[in-house]
Amino acid sequence: MLFRSHDKKIGHYTISLHLHAKDDESYSKYWEKVFSIHFNKKVRFYQQETNGLRLTFYSKEIYLLIFKYLIIGKNKSLNVSLKEPLTNYSLDFLKMFVRGIIDTDGCVNKHGQVVLGVISRKVVSQVKRILQLNNISSKISTRKVRLNENTLYELKIHKKEAINYLNLIGFSNRRKGYNIC
Fold it and tell me: Phi and psi of 86, rounded to 5°?
């Protein structure tokens, strides 16, 4: 999960990634390396609650880059989506977008299916369309997790197609790919 904020009073552009402390340890090191090498940014690690890990860094450049491509409303989880029609992006960009969102908001279940669970109807529809462009079939279902909460949109890529996903798009979070094989 990605969190970003800007404090106009002090001029900080804060970006945080929220991960699982144990399961995503190598993935957190991956992001630390990406931000260090490509953006010359130092990442701060914070232990959160029981199993949470928060990676935080400050960067106006990355903050603006995020908003160049994404629409993020007040309730970012509900309103996030790509800004432009999908035809305005390269296929490689779209693959990396799907990889990123499934790395952070997805999982591979015990049946070897790739599952993405989000509350943004628009972003799950965009992901489904991007998968179709890559000849990967998927299904979207909805469910209410709790009364008075937003609908959860769950996109599933069944195991046979998950192998195609692994070969065509893959994971940056290597742990997730192991569960498909």
Answer: -60, -30
DSSP at 105:
H
Gyration radius from the chain CA atoms? 16
Choose among 23, 29, 33: nearest CA to 176. 23
Residue with tokens 């160049």: 68
Q: How many CA atoms lie within 13 A of 176 on its CB side?
A: 26
Q: Is the CA virtual torsion 164, 151, 83, 3 positive or negative?
A: negative
CA atoms within 13 A on the CB side of 59: 22
First to last CA, the chain: 25
**Main-chain dihedrals φ then ψ at residue 125, nearest 5 degrees:** -65, -40
C-beta of residue 71 within 8 angstroms of C-beta of residue 79: yes
* pLDDT tens per residue, range 57-82: 888 888 888 888 888 877 766 778 89
Reply yes or no on whether the pLDDT at 1 is more than 80. Answer: no
| Coil, strand or helix at 131 | helix
pLDDT in tens, 3-17: 555 555 555 788 888
